[in-house]
Write a structure and sequence with these properties.
Length: 194
């Protein structure tokens, strides 16, 4: 079922979606672990979101409410992040401990990531001025209807255990816990098609 308030987003509107994600994730424990200073966060977070989610824009996986109060970036079945997009970030390096921590986190995340075709929710965000109105849920239901119609599962990593009840309401089930100290935990969640 299509919601007239939900629009498909392409590359030409990416900046508006990145603005939503930057506002929405400003207090996210995992994002702020990596970029704790405001200038770091404001510079790197939108670039990171785009690097991971770029192929969602190019393959019909990005939705927003028409007023750009909320958006979701999904990677469709069979579509993955391009490692070249990550490499192109040219992130500052030189800290072997931080690099090892990032590699350990990626390895732990890979343990839970489904191998079969699935819709991967990379980010779901609502501008804080509009939070608490069910907008994220509207976007989630919209894409889950698409997944269900095709008989395809969905997967995500909740960036806070406090988000588990929200995603559980939409049929996601916790399949583990990603813990790589001192990074805040991530909660892998899987949803069978209905």
């Amino acid at each position: 079922m299509s919601d007239p308030g939900i629009i498909a987003i392409d590359d030409t509107q990416a900046a508006r979606v990145l603005d939503i994600m930057t506002l929405a994730f400003a207090r996210d424990p995992v994002a702020r672990f990596w970029w704790s200073q405001p200038d770091q966060y404001l510079y790197w977070w939108p670039r990171w979101v785009m690097a991971i989610g770029r192929n969602g824009f190019g393959h019909g996986g990005v939705d927003a409410l028409a007023d750009f109060s909320a958006a979701a970036i999904w990677l469709p079945p069979g579509i993955q992040t391009d490692p070249a997009d990550i490499a192109a970030l040219d992130m500052p390096g030189g800290d072997p401990e931080e690099e090892a921590l990032g590699n350990a986190l990626q390895a732990e995340m890979a343990r839970y990531h489904p191998q079969e075709d699935h819709w991967y929710l990379w980010t779901l965000g609502t501008d804080p001025a509009f939070q608490g109105k069910g907008l994220g849920g509207q976007l989630l239901e919209h894409r889950l209807d698409v997944a269900d119609d095709a008989g395809i599962p969905a997967y995500l990593e909740a960036s806070s255990p406090g988000l588990v009840p929200f995603y559980s309401r939409y049929g996601f089930e916790q399949v583990g816990l990603i813990e790589v100290s001192p990074v805040p935990p991530l909660v892998p969640m899987y949803r069978k098609p209905r």
